[in-house]
Amino acid sequence: QVQLVESGGGLVQPGGSLRLSCAASGRTFSSAAMGWFRQAPGKEREFVAAISWSGGSTDYVDSVKGRFAISRDNAKNTVYLQMNSLKLEDTAVYFCAADFGWFGVPPRRPGTYDYWGQGTQVTVSS
Length: 126
Fold this sequence. Notes:
Oligomer: single chain
């Protein structure tokens, strides 16, 4: 069993920055690929970014490329999502997820992932 706890969400103005954190416990974090997803009201859960177990490979949805950066610290059992130049359309609940079944970066489908956190709200508003 794995527990994932997100933090770092909040209210920010357009153009601002936030850093989300996801702390993992309960299983060997360093063997899991990690992903960030988001879900806006009335919309399906959307892939945002993913990182391989080693941190050597990453993947981003086109809408966040150049603005968001995913990273991980296996010594701290934590994955991060640095979000810069935030836009109104980035408003959503952000979830982290763990996948123990892939050596590299997993497919972008939510169903690929084994464990999920409860989410943290990010609101971009002026």
